[in-house]
Amino acid sequence: MFNSSLLIANPWLIWYSMIKVTRLNGTEYYINPHQIECMEVRPDTTLVMLSGKSHIVREEVDDVMGKIEAYYRRICPPVMQE
C-alpha cells in the first residue's frame, strides 16, 4: 500500500512521479500519466483514465502530450534522448 505521508514529507515526489494539469476552474492538480488510457477533445481536453474516470482539463492535448514526454524524459533519460 502507498504511504501518502511520504508525499507530504517529500513534495518533490509529486513533481517527479506525476504531471500537473489544471481543472476548468483553475485548480491545479497532479495525475499519474501511466493511468491515462486516452485523451479526447470534446471540445475541452478530457483525460480518460484506466479506471474509467474522466478528468476535464484546461490544457490542450499537445500540452498534455508534452508534459507526458517530459515526464518520461525524467524517468528514463537514456532511452528518450537518443
Short account of what is shown:
With 82 residues, the chain is α+β, with helices and mostly antiparallel strands. It has helices spanning 5-9, 12-17, 61-75, 77-80; strands at residues 19-22, 28-31, 36-41, 45-49, 54-57.
Evaluate the radius of gyration.
14 Å
The CA-CA distance between the termini, in Å, is 35 Å
Strand content: 25-35%
Largest sheet: 3 strands, antiparallel
Quaternary structure state of the chains depicted: single chain
**Helical residue percent band:** 25-40%
Following the backbone from N to C, one meets helices and strands in this order, namely: HHEEEEEHH
Tally of separate helices? 4
- Which strand order does the major sheet show? 3-4-5
SS class? alpha+beta
* Mean model confidence by pLDDT: 83
What gross morphology would you assign? globular
Task: Provide structural commentary.
This protein is of the alpha+beta class. 7% of the residues are buried. The chain has one domain (5-80). The radius of gyration is 14 Å and the shape is globular. Helices cover 37% and strands 28% of the residues. Strands 3-4-5 form a 3-stranded antiparallel beta sheet, with no helix packed on it. Strands 1-2 form a two-stranded antiparallel ribbon. The termini are far apart. The chain has helices at residues 5-9, 12-17, 61-75, 77-80; strands at 19-22, 28-31, 36-41, 45-49, 54-57. It has 4 helices and 5 strands.
